[in-house]
Automatic annotation (TrEMBL):
InterPro entries: CzcB_C, MFP_Cation_Efflux, RND_pump_MFP. Residues 418-479 form the CzcB-like C-terminal circularly permuted SH3-like domain. The keyword Transport applies. This is Efflux RND transporter periplasmic adaptor subunit. Belongs to the membrane fusion protein (MFP) (TC 8.A.1) family. Gene3D superfamilies: 2.40.30.170, 2.40.420.20, 2.40.50.100, Helix hairpin bin. It comes from Pseudogemmatithrix spongiicola. GO terms for molecular function: transition metal ion binding; transmembrane transporter activity. Keywords: Signal, Transport. PROSITE patterns: PROKAR_LIPOPROTEIN. It comes from the Bacteria. Residues 1-21 form the signal peptide. GO terms for biological process: copper ion export; plasma membrane copper ion transport. The keyword Transport applies.
């Protein structure tokens, strides 16, 4: 079980439950009593809990939203045990709920028998998380008249409900922390294959190109030895030599088989067997030299994939004449890619040559670590940049060779301040902003001053405090929510 670490507790005071009630009333109805809203984090779980005014003898349904912080998914199963312990002494009130009412939302309904201040402990027993969450200082009133009135009004900030968060791919939040960071310079780069990771498959002979309907197309993955295309040699392009070479190979094979039988019967000396073997090898090599070693029964020369990889280019059309050695296919192994970073000459002296860079290819949101390879000794006369090479690591999907990229090249300089994940900072027309979580479903847009980073984290100089929680994944979705003028429909199923 995780040790409790209460990192953020907001609005233990009172807050309107209008968003959850949605019950039309009239002016003669009894005034609404204020409930509470609590947001707490442990090492593994986020609790966002709303509850009505707690009154002796009156059952009120809680809405306890539980999020697994390993992947920010709702807790879909498992039991929770709520233990309300009165500070004045006496037996605690224990309420158990065996499963969420809907994924992520539990709805216990405790009934208190005595007023006072209670400390709540929630024990979570789920396949996703086992945790203990402590919620201090819940106030239970003797009568409804003792409970404060709901002052009404909407909560401030940007609404982004738990149901929205759970359904948004990549959504996550993290704490801003004080720390130091190796400062990286952001420079352009280019993705390219490592040596040996790209090959061109040329036409094996001159003749007419034949492509089957299932011939590999650009973007398809092939394995070494797969047939890519076939060439039909014509007379004058080696057609006759093909026939001659195949005939000589058949004769050599037959002679070799005959020599084996005679040698087994001790009818010929071993020298004759050796001569037959040499002749067979020579015939095979002659045919391979003409047609690449892959000849079909009807005289077509096969072009086979020289490596495992992805087709990046295909030349020629079916029926077109090709010359021996002309490129027909280009292949690349996407698991072995390098990136070249173009570092300004006035910066290259500060580059940390032993540290990994962080690469963001054009058109990709993912960032990739890259192992340092080397720094060029030459300066480009036009761009005044030095080429610094890195090997990409942890590739989960193919990257297009030749793609441009942004490369966070680490330097030996370090800075101190507030550190947040790089995904937390958005560029809004040249202004750096973050979205700060003020409660479980409320966010605040904050302008910050950024002072570099290392590609994975960013150093914030002002506008943010250590201990505040920021949206660090899919922050753009919160930005879109901030631009919407519509009031979000509350999806809690209490």
């Amino acid at each position: 079980m995780h040790s409790r670490r209460a990192l953020l507790a907001l609005a233990l005071g009172f807050s309107a439950m209008a968003a959850c009630a949605d019950t039309p009333g009239d002016e003669s109805a009894a005034p609404e009593r204020a409930g509470g809203v609590i947001t707490l984090f442990t090492d593994s779980t986020e609790l966002f809990m709303e509850h009505p005014a707690l009154i002796v003898g009156v059952g009120g349904t809680f809405a306890a939203h539980l999020t697994d912080l390993t992947d920010f998914a709702p807790l879909r199963s498992g039991r929770i045990v709520l233990t309300f312990t009165p500070r004045s002494g006496g037996a605690p009130l224990v309420v158990t709920q065996d499963a969420p009412r809907v994924p992520g939302i539990y709805g216990p309904a405790p009934v208190f028998t005595a007023p006072g201040i209670y400390d709540l402990v929630i024990d979570v027993e789920s396949p996703q998380a086992r945790d203990r969450i402590e919620v201090p200082g819940l106030v239970v009133y003797a009568t409804e008249d003792d409970a404060p009135l709901d002052e009404g009004g909407e909560d401030g900030g940007i609404a982004f409900l738990k149901e929205q968060q759970w359904k948004t791919p990549g959504f996550r939040t993290d704490f801003a922390v004080s720390g130091t960071l190796a400062i990286a310079v952001d420079v352009p780069g280019e993705v390219m294959p490592a040596p040996g990771a790209a090959q061109v498959a040329p036409a094996p002979a001159s003749g007419l190109l034949e492509l089957s309907p299932d011939a590999p197309a650009v973007g398809m993955r092939v394995r070494r030895g797969d047939v890519l295309a076939r060439v039909r040699p014509t007379l004058g392009d080696g057609g006759a030599s093909f026939a001659d070479a195949r005939a000589r190979l058949r004769e050599a094979e037959e002679e070799h088989a005959r020599a084996e039988r005679l040698l087994a019967a001790e009818a010929i000396p071993e020298r004759r067997m050796h001569e037959a073997t040499v002749a067979l090898d020579a015939a095979r090599e002659a045919l391979a030299a003409i047609g690449g070693g892959a000849i079909t029964a009807d005289g077509l020369v096969e072009l086979r994939a020289p490596m495992d990889g992805i087709v990046t280019e295909r030349w020629g059309t079916a029926g077109a004449r090709v010359e021996a050695g002309a490129p027909l296919y280009s292949l690349v192994d996407p698991s072995r890619l390098w990136v070249t970073a173009f570092v300004p000459v006035d910066v290259v002296g500060r580059v940390d040559r032993g540290a990994r860079a962080v690469v963001t290819p054009e058109g990709f949101s993912d960032r990739f670590a890259a192992r340092p390879l080397g720094v060029s000794a030459a300066v480009d006369s036009l761009t005044r940049a030095v080429r610094v090479s890195y090997a990409l690591e942890g590739l989960r999907e193919p990257l297009p060779v030749g793609a441009l990229a942004r490369v966070a090249v680490p330097t030996r300089s370090r800075g101190a301040g507030i550190v947040v994940p790089a995904g937390a900072v958005l560029d809004e027309d040249g202004t750096a902003i973050v979205f700060v979580q003020t409660s479980g479903e409320r966010y605040e847009r904050r302008v910050v001053q950024v002072d570099g980073g290392d590609g994975r984290s960013v150093l914030v100089r002002s506008g943010l405090n250590a201990g505040e929680r920021v949206v660090s994944g899919a922050a753009y979705h919160v930005k879109l929510a901030s631009l919407s003028t519509a009031v979000p429909a509350h999806g809690h199923e209490h």
